[in-house]
Amino acid sequence: MIDDRPSSGLMAICLVVAGGVLAAVALVYVVLTSGGNSLSQLAKYVAGVAFVAGVVNPRAAMFPFIVATIYLDLLKRLLILYDRVGFMDLFFVLGIGPALLAGITGGTLAGIFFGKIRVDKRHWILLAVSVVYVGGMAAMAFRDEGLKDALKKVADTAAYSLLLFVIPALFRDWREIWRLLRFGLIAFLPAGFYAYYQHFRGLSAFEIEYLKSGLTIMVKELDDVRPRPFSTLNSAHSLAFLSSMLCSIAFVPLAVGRDHPEISRRRWLFALLGLFCFGVTFVTMARSGHIVWIAALAAVLAFSSRRLTIAVYGIGLALYGSLIVFAEWFMVKLPEWDSLLSKDSALMEQATRIQTYTDRLISFTALHDARNYSLFGVKHYVFTHEALSSMLVNYGLVVLLPVLIAAGWSLRWIHRELLHLPAGGTRRVVCLFFGVAMGVVAGEIMFGAVAGVFPINAYVWIMIGGTLVELFRQADLRRGAENEIDRRHHHPARPVLDGRGPFATALN
Fold first, then answer.
1. Nearest to residue 117, comparing CAs of 59, 164, 156?
2. Is residue 134 included in any domain, yes or no?
């Protein structure tokens, strides 16, 4: 009998292609003939397709999600080239990322329900943490800004914490996380080259129009001596932090050493990519971004040792405490120090400008005032620009203290597990992952307005999730080894009585 399966498969492929072409033609017709902004209409359908793709194959959908983190704001910028832009146009364009994340999360839960994805109690705890975080952020945003703005804030910031659950559920070890991040490095190359172009040639005419359009708060760039490059992202600060994170990630092949030759053999190529990303961080003139690669380097060097870990956190806390205690003195000295730095050109003025840190110092002084310490936040206006004082002033000790306790407990657990990892390349890579995330957290504490901004928040959760993937795997391996030893050296659960002892007579 003739096997007709190949011809049947070919027929199925032809039908799929024909259906795709017809759907594309119909989509183009609908977009071009409908009212409103054509690009936003297209984005609406893209968001729908992205959601379905995330549900069908959540792990594969993580790769277009990485692309969206880099280029989604460029799509928003291109809206001004089409018809008049309204609020719903922004909603459709910026909704692609959350729609893709919702599909990935839904697909992950569906995979668990149907038995395709195996999880345990630890993963459900991560999901509970994510849900509590999203709910808490939604409640605070609703209290401060109303329903519409609260929904926007949740979609832009808090929702990406679901990656804390998704990443450990979809990926099995750090090598799979590396493949995802390696894809992000390659996808970032056009954005990086575009940043260099903006640095040397300036912004394009449509980008100047975009800054003036009211679609972004970055209109202040036009008041600077020269607009700073922001490439395809929403600001120069976001570009600086993302490129600094990718700069650190590019050195994974060097960090892994000889333990995994299939990864380390191209270490010098990725080192060049790391230097490329470092250059992007530099040309943004957003110096706060450099804290990420510094933290990642410190993590690789120190987090393998208990004493060095304590030393790193001790130095960080001492520096942070000094900024708080001596904030007013620094505010007086900054203008003097700034006047000593070279201002020969617009570029040098941006590179050596240090008075911009005054806003953070003013925010630190809020911690000096006892009136700002309350249970549920203060009612009078207090200027804040970084995480600790903002949380204290806006939400009070009822929120701040549990957050600090939970953060301290989580750090203690993660560092204990890091020290249990086998010495070598795996430990160094996992320390690097966690160091990248901690660098962004340090940036939020020292500078503010970083960790909650897309796409930086998405990468923070990916890096923490990637850290947990390997910590969970190594814990399972240790548990399996211990169980194997117990099976080989079995002992009775209770001692056998030999007739001696105080109850010997009664037993006999």
1. 59
2. no
